[in-house]
Amino acid sequence: MKRLFSPWRMPYLGRDKAAEKARGCVFCLALEQNDSAANLIVHRGQRAFVILNRFPYTSGHLMVLPFTHVEQLDGLDEATRAELMELMTTATQVLGTVYKPQGFNLGANLGAAAGAGIEEHLHLHILPRWAGDTNFISTVGETRVLPETLEETWQRIKAAW
Ligand SMILES: [Zn+2]
C-alpha cells in the first residue's frame, strides 16, 4: 500500500507512548467501556469487534480486532480467526453502501518493524479507496482531506451495519 502523506497524523506520531502504555492497551480500554459512540466502536461480535481508526487515512477507515489481547494470528483460536474474516467481509459491504468506494485496502501490520502503531493487540485495517485519492491529497498538499468528523462517520457506519 502506498503511504499517504497525512499531516493530521502528527498528533498520533507525536503521542506519548510511555504514558499510553501505563494507562493500558487503548483497544482493551475501549472494549471495556459501555459507551460505543465515545469509543468509536461500530460493532461488537461474539469474539471480535469493529472500531473506527481515531487517526484515519480517509473517512471510513475501520479496524477489526479480536477481544483477546494478542500480537499474532496464531495466538487466536479458529473460531476467532473466522469471525475476524466475517467482520472484514461485512465491513467492506457496509463501507461499500455508505461511501461507494472504488476499492479497498485490507491488511495488518504485525510487529513494530512492519509498521504497527499498537503492536500488542492485533488489528486488521479496512480502508475504502478511490482512484487517484493519494494524488489528490498530494496535489492540495498539507490539508486534511476528511469531509466529515469521526462522530459523523460513526453514525453513518453504525446505521448501515
Ligand atoms: Zn489489548
Largest sheet: 5 strands, antiparallel
Number of helices: 6
Distance between the termini: 26 Å
Strand order of the largest sheet: 1-2-3-5-4
- How many runs of DSSP E, i.e. beta strands? 5
- The percentage of residues in β strands lies in 15-25%
Give the C-alpha Rg.
15 Å
Shape by Cα distribution? globular
Order of helices and strands: HHHEEEHEEHH
Please give a structural write-up:
- Strands 1-2-3-5-4 form a five-stranded antiparallel beta sheet, with helices on both faces.
- The protein has helices at 10-13, 17-23, 26-32, 78-99, 133-140, 150-160; strands at residues 41-44, 48-52, 62-66, 103-107, 124-129.
- A hairpin with a 3-residue loop joins strand 1 (41-44) and strand 2 (48-52).
- It starts with 9 loop residues before the first helix and ends with a helix.
- The model is unreliable at 1-5 (pLDDT under 50).
- Helices cover 37% and strands 16% of the residues.
- The protein has six helices and five strands; from the N terminus they run αααβββαββαα.
- The chain is α+β, with helices and mostly antiparallel strands and 161 residues long.
- The structure holds zinc ion.
- Residues 25, 27-28, 69, 121 line the site of zinc ion.
- Zinc ion is lined by residues 25, 27-28, 69, 121.
